[in-house]
Specification:
single chain, alpha+beta, Muramoyl-pentapeptide Carboxypeptidase, domain 2, five-stranded mixed β-sheet, two-stranded antiparallel ribbon, 6 helices, about 35% helix
């Protein structure tokens, strides 16, 4: 009986330890590229929903290991140019995507002026600004910028002005083009409707996850 209790406690302890870890094949960005700034918006209230998002138990960037290593190489490239990358979102649990769907259907408009001033929130999914099946949930997508650079619009500004090739200031145009070029050199492709969204190669057919970030 005593041995059985010992094995039970050991098993529960091991399960608890694994609960705080990323899925197999993932890495914490802080372990791979600790100098990349993490401003994980969905772990707090500074995002388009105006509240912390389910699934974000900690402001941590998790990515597939291959994507994390590629992002570390991109940061090295950026550092050589005297700048630093900053991430806003990485792996996104599927429950967070479901929460976005629920949010789009409620009457809360408190973030409209800051995030979607010219579009109804009910149109954000049909217009492609938010996806019901996000590549973020595969751990191969990242929302990113460069610290101190002006991109013409803020992160998660749902408007045609945020489209990567949209007409913008000369400075913002140069910054958008430079970020796209930097990320492409390291295997990431930009989503044309969001200057900040990049997906690492191999996302097609990759499985999605719903493990809480801790």
């Amino acid at each position: 009986m005593r041995r059985l209790m010992f094995l039970l406690v050991t098993t529960l302890s091991a399960s608890h330890a694994r609960a705080d870890e990323p899925p197999q094949g993932f890495a914490r960005l802080a372990d791979v590229a600790p100098d990349i700034i993490q401003d994980m918006r969905y772990a707090g209230a500074d995002n388009f929903t105006g509240a912390p998002v389910p699934g974000y138990g900690a402001p941590q960037c998790w990515l597939r290991t291959e994507a994390a290593k590629a992002l570390a190489a991109a940061q090295k490239d950026a550092r050589a140019q005297g700048v630093s990358l900053i991430v806003y979102d990485c792996y996104r649990p599927q429950r967070a995507v479901s929460a976005f769907v629920d949010w789009s259907r409620n009457a809360d408009q408190r973030t409209k002026a800051e995030h979607y001033p010219r579009i109804n929130k009910s149109a954000l999914f049909p217009e492609g600004y938010i996806a019901e099946h996000s590549t973020h949930s595969t751990g191969l997508a990242v929302d990113i910028g460069v610290k101190g650079w002006n991109f013409g619009t803020p992160f998660d500004f749902f408007d045609s002005r945020s489209w990567t090739k949209a007409k913008t200031s000369k400075t913002a145009r140069a910054h958008r083009d430079a970020l796209v070029a930097l990320m492409r050199r390291h295997g990431f492709e930009n989503f044309p409707r969001e200057w900040w969204h990049f997906t690492y190669k191999g996302a097609d057919g990759a499985p999605s996850y719903d493990i809480e970030i801790k």
